[in-house]
Design a protein that fits this description.
Chain A has 781 residues and is mainly α. Helices cover 60% and strands 3% of the residues of chain A. Chain A has two domains: 459 residues, Up-down Bundle (Cytochrome C Oxidase, Chain A); 157 residues, Cytochrome c-like domain (Cytochrome Bc1 Complex, Chain D, domain 2, Orthogonal Bundle), CATH 1.10.760. In chain A, helix 2 packs parallel to helix 4, helix 9 runs antiparallel to helix 11 and helix 26 packs across helix 27. Chain B is 44% helix and 6% strand. In chain B, the strands form two sheets. A two-stranded antiparallel sheet of chain B has the order 1-2. Classes of the chains: A mainly alpha (781), B mainly alpha (239).
């Protein structure tokens, strides 16, 4: 390690002196080429899936005619595929392309290992393919942007840390440039923090290869998920793209970066503050209020650290604005950074509790993430690729004109996407809370609020299509540029002296203007500190820098996590809340697998308009057996936290068969396959045991789960029949269907709160007799 | 790689003096507005926290919710107070167009998915015809709303709706009788006699009000029990 040996020689210029013999090296641009091509290819795919789910929202029965294939292609299953593909396939490969290209040049050395680079590339692509296969099959953990099941999670950890992380950090260690440029700081933060987030949010107990239960439950699971989810935005979609900006923008503009001091301050404040902000995704939920306040305040404090990046980006263009007019690369960067500024202003705004009360669960969030993802990540990626294409393929860009067209089509596409969706979000939020002068809901029928915004959803499709067509132009330009590449790539050899270990003080820069002036010694010290030479010395110590960055995120995380996990009073337990019955547990797994959480929340907030619509607000103790939690983040359909007993079992049956039979103009897909597919009763035992292992107090369920489940299924089937339903659906007995398990789960939702705790004979004359039967009766609706 | 050797404009701010792959950095100070807004957000946070988390009453989310909910209850029901769950109330509310609309709002949020938006019946029975499955008189509607029917096909609403809401939605359901839905479900159950008219209750109420005026000390407990089991009518209610 470069930092290991302290040097006795502290004389001036010792830093320059401690270099060794001149070495020659070549860059590995092959790996960058691969990542660039992967970025473009996955970009087209991810956005095509996005366009598909946008169409499905307007035409929910589009794929129903496809039969067995149709059940794989519902909104609930495809939406996670769209988000994962966009984040991890499109943005992910773009990050890797940026890092592999710029790190080598900023370090004046080749990537440490070509083999690790290849393993990283192919490992990552395989993970994406695995995601594309498993998500439509309903194999999911149901935690947003962490949906992939545990075997894939392990692969991600190995590829990220073992292949990518090691390769990157070893490149820093073996570099020939004494100091690390700000882009590298952001890459370091990305590498260590993503690893941390990924590992701790995905700790699960496996139940076979394709299913697992989170080790966290309810409130704690929600907390961990949004600690992860928010910081996936921070450290996957922000820090690496800031690093990308710091390298490619000054390169393309050929201008110095606006302010070195600002880089330092906004880097450290961003890294330290971002990690606290996750709970702003859980305002007004059952999360303890102090955590929610913490999330809000740190989000507000994050505003300026984020804007530090924007300022350093936009002001770097001072003196280069004339180039923006002609260079599509700079056009993309300008719009990208502008969207970054907008999104990072809107983020703190949405984190303010009273604003969040309006925006949460609505399309406002969707508009916000798309201004970030399409505007910031998309435009920055495109700018970078157009800058890289001629350099990587050592020829002219096939068509600058087409790149300019891509820019305009993409920019207009974003606006056509986000403007109607902002309007939709506001409309939804306002309709949900609208009460008349007598204090009753003006729009008690949820469907009415959905129908109102369908025109917005329709316009959005065109915005998405425009943006996608821009990406197709990029793909064509990439392909054509690649076709005109030389037969053999030139690979120039560079030379630089080897760095020798040096651990002395940073040589003084320019003399202080206070030198010899009548200023207090303290003043001189402050001036010395403000000149940031101390940071300059960190910049040549990659290991120390990495440890400090890790420290910043770990300390901030622990401050929130330790209270959330240790103080039991944060999660009051409710005596009447009991674990799910075996059948309900199986039904819950179907709910997770179908991705119901993508459209239905299970979290009623303590807001009058909301309790009027859905019932008593959700208490922390109600989700203590929920692994993973299913609070959701979006209401395309109504909240289901108190769905139990709200509809008859037969109603649910008919609703799955075709929602429009009972809810005309519903946008819910048809779930007829649940009426046809048989439930695997045998596998329930394993799931009950896993839940028991995690603390659910099961007893005879451990041995008799399938029998108990069958009995409850028979009761529900009998109910359905008595309510006018069939005994058999096609060739399947109703009692054997998956739908019955899902109905059992739905009928259980939210009913425990009002269940009498102990069998008191005086409780209520109408109540069911005390004892075990209560559970079954209540569970059965 | 080559270092940037462009001539520096004398008007330009000083460079830090290093170059990475040709990228240089200016030694510009932090923009003042940036610095002070950052400090401002920190100061705001330091003030916000103790304001909401020092335990002062009425500032937590739960407490503010309770206040808002009580306010909403006043707004909704101040005029009618706590309704008595009896036949007279049901009939009276059924005949009050303003309160029927309130009942309709509750109906649309909770009942329309099974009984149809206009009461024509979907999975649940038609509520607009003269046939009823579990209802023999108007107070049965309220009872069914409260405890449910048909083995859970009709859910119990007593834990979900407030008593006033239960009564108002029952009155609205009663008011549906005799309307013509767009696509009515075939009749189920038995034909039952029409709902009692308001007139008989009005005479009762007038008598009672007159009595109350004559002797304000006389409580309604002394009231003779009628066949319809009227309990009392709030004195404030001018009906």
């Amino acid at each position: 390690m470069a930092v290991a040996v302290p040097q006795a020689d502290h004389g001036t210029g010792s830093l320059e002196a401690s270099v060794g013999e001149v070495e020659t090296y070549q860059y590995n641009d092959g790996i960058t080429r691969m990542f660039v091509i992967a970025t473009v290819a996955w970009g087209v795919i991810a956005m095509t899936v996005g366009l598909t789910v946008a169409i499905l929202m307007v035409l929910p029965k589009l794929f129903y005619e496809l039969g067995p294939l149709g059940e794989l292609l519902t909104f609930g299953r495809l939406r996670p595929l769209h988000t994962n593909a966009t984040i991890f396939a499109f943005a992910g490969n773009a990050i890797f392309a940026a890092i592999y290209y710029s790190t080598q040049r900023l370090c004046k050395c080749r990537m440490w290992s070509d083999t690790l680079g290849l393993l990283h590339f192919w490992g990552w692509q395989l993970i994406i393919v695995a995601a594309a296969v498993t998500l439509p099959l309903g194999i999911t953990q149901s935690k947003e942007y962490a949906e992939l099941e545990w075997p894939i999670d392990i692969a991600i950890a190995v590829v990220w840390v073992g292949f990518f992380g090691v390769n990157f950090l070893m490149t820093l260690v073996t570099r020939r440039e004494r100091h690390m440029y700000v882009a590298l700081w952001f890459y370091i933060a990305t590498v260590v923090t993503v690893a941390l987030l990924h590992v701790f949010n995905n700790l699960v107990v496996p139940v076979g290869w394709f299913k697992s239960y989170s080790i966290y439950a309810g409130v704690q699971d929600a907390f961990m998920q949004w600690w992860y989810g928010h910081n996936a935005v921070a450290f996957f979609l922000t820090t690496p793209f800031l690093g990308l900006m710091y390298y490619f923008l000054p390169k393309a503009a050929e201008r110095p970066v606006f302010s070195y001091k600002l880089s330092i301050l906004h880097f450290w404040s961003l890294v330290f503050i971002y990690i606290w902000a996750g709970p702003h995704h859980l305002h007004y939920t059952a999360l303890p209020e102090w955590a929610s306040t913490m999330g809000m305040l740190f989000s507000l404090m994050l505003w300026m650290p984020s804007w530090g990046g924007m300022i350093n980006g936009l002001l770097t263009l001072r003196g280069a604005w004339h180039k923006v007019a002609t260079d599509p690369v700079l056009k993309f960067f300008v719009v990208g950074i502008t969207f970054y500024g907008m999104a990072t202003f809107e983020g703190p705004l949405l984190s303010i509790k009273s604003i969040n009360a309006l925006s949460h669960y609505t399309d406002w969030t969707i508009a916000h993430v798309h201004s970030g993802a399409l505007g910031w990540n998309g435009m920055m990626t495109f700018g970078m690729i157009y800058w890289l294409l001629p350099r990587l393929f050592q020829t002219k860009l096939w068509s600058v004109r087409m790149a300019t067209w891509h820019f305009w089509v993409g920019t207009v596409g974003i606006l056509v996407y986000i403007i109607p969706i902002y309007a939709a979000g506001l409309t939804q939020g306002l309709m949900w809370r609208e009460m008349d002068e007598t204090g009753r809901l003006v729009y008690p029928d949820f469907l009415e609020t959905v129908q109102t915004i369908i025109p917005h959803w329709t316009i959005r499709i065109f915005g998405g299509a425009l943006f996608l067509s821009g990406v197709v132009m990029l793909a064509i330009n990439t392909l054509m540029t690649w076709m005109s590449r030389p037969a053999v790539y030139e690979n120039p050899t560079y030379s630089a002296p080897r760095l020798l270990p040096y651990n002395g003080p940073e040589p003084a820069g320019k003399p202080s203007p206070l030198e010899g002036k009548p200023v207090l010694e303290f003043g001189k010290k402050v001036d010395q500190f403000a000149r940031m030479d101390w940071h300059r010395s960190w910049e040549r110590l990659p290991v120390k820098f990495t440890v400090l960055t890790l420290g910043a995120v770990v300390v901030a995380s622990l401050f929130e996590m330790i209270p959330t996990f240790l103080i039991r009073s944060n999660v009051p337990t409710i005596a009447s809340v009991k674990p799910y019955t075996p059948l309900e547990l199986a039904g819950r797994d179907i709910y997770v697998s179908e991705g119901c959480y993508n459209c239905h929340s299970q979290m009623i907030r303590p807001i009058v308009a909301e309790t009027k619509r859905y019932g008593d607000y959700s208490k922390p103790g109600e989700s203590v057996y929920d692994r993973p939690f299913q609070w959701g983040s979006r209401r395309i359909g109504p909240d289901l936290a108190r769905e139990g007993g709200r509809q008859s079992s037969f109603w649910h049956w008919v609703h799955f068969e075709d929602p429009e039979q009972v809810s005309p103009k519903s946008v819910m897909p048809i779930y007829e396959h649940l009426l046809v597919n048989e439930l695997d009763f045998k596998q329930i035992t394993d799931r009950v045991r896993a839940a028991h292992f995690l603390g659910a107090p099961y007893d005879r369920e451990l041995e008799e789960a399938p029998e108990m489940a069958r009995r409850q299924a028979e009761e529900i089937a009998a109910e359905i029949v008595s309510q006018g339903g069939p005994v058999k659906y096609g060739d399947t007995l109703v009692m054997n269907t998956q739908a019955v398990a899902l109905i059992a789960y739905l009928q259980r939702l939210g009913v425990d709160l009002n269940r009498p705790v102990t069998p008191e004979p005086v409780a209520e004359p109408d109540a069911a007799p005390a004892g075990e039967d209560v559970e079954v009766e209540v569970g059965g609706g | 790689m080559t270092t940037d050797s462009r001539p520096t404009d004398p008007n330009e701010p000083p460079l830090v003096g290093h170059s990475f792959d040709g990228i240089q950095e200016y030694d510009n100070p932090l923009p003042g507005w940036w610095k002070w807004l950052f400090v401002g957000t920190i100061v705001f946070s330091l003030l916000y926290w103790p304001f909401f988390h020092s335990g002062a009453p009425g500032r937590s989310i739960e407490e503010r919710f309770s206040i808002a909910q009580a306010e909403n209850m006043r707004l909704q029901f101040a005029e009618i107070g706590e309704l008595k769950p009896n036949e007279e109330t049901l009939v009276r509310m059924m005949n009050d167009p303003g309160w029927v609309k309130v009942g309709e709002s509750i109906y649309r949020g909770n009942c329309a998915s099974c009984h149809g938006i206009d009461g024509g019946g979907v999975v649940g029975p038609n509520l607009a015809d003269d046939h009823y499955k579990n209802v023999r008189d108007i107070s049965d509607i309220l009872r069914i709303v409260q405890v449910g029917a048909a083995a859970g096909a009709m859910p119990a609403w007593q834990n979900r709706l407030q008593l006033n809401e239960q009564i108002l939605v029952s009155s609205f359901v009663a008011s549906l009788r005799g309307t013509t839905p767009a696509s009515p479900k075939p009749a189920e159950g038995n034909v039952i006699p029409p709902w009692p008219s308001m007139i008989e209750f009005e005479t009762e109420a007038e008598a009672e009000a007159a009595e109350a005026e004559m002797d304000p000390l006389l409580t309604t407990e002394a009231e003779p029990v009628t066949a319809t089991q009227i309990e009392d009518v709030p004195a404030s209610d001018g009906s």
